[in-house]
Amino acid sequence: MSITTKDVQHVAKLARLNMTPEEENLFTDQLNAILQYAEKLKELDTEGVEPTTHVLPLHNVMREDENRKSLPIEKVLLNAPDEEDGHFKVPAVME
């Protein structure tokens, strides 16, 4: 399978991109190089290789939750564009 300039023009039109003929040729060449590389990967023997989502054996990398004091409401509301009764006041989204 290979990508033609017509394919690039079609995708550019769908994405509403204006491309020069030079850019079309450049992208055609680059996309074909990617496809050639993918074809080369098919030559590898992957028998017995387990599927993975990451190259390293990562497990839970999140920190432990810990309880700590919240900011005082006065300090939090300093950044609010508008507040009412200790709450952020926002425009109504439903009538």
From TrEMBL:
Please give the superkingdom of this protein's source.
Bacteria
Q: Main EC class of this protein? A: ligase
Keyword list (alphabetical) reads: ATP-binding, Ligase, Nucleotide-binding, Protein biosynthesis, Transferase
Listed GO molecular functions? ATP binding; glutaminyl-tRNA synthase (glutamine-hydrolyzing) activity; transferase activity
* Assembly information from the UniProt record: Heterotrimer of A, B and C subunits.
Q: Which family is it part of? A: Belongs to the GatC family.
Protein name according to UniProt = Aspartyl/glutamyl-tRNA(Asn/Gln) amidotransferase subunit C
The species this protein was found in: Paenibacillus lemnae
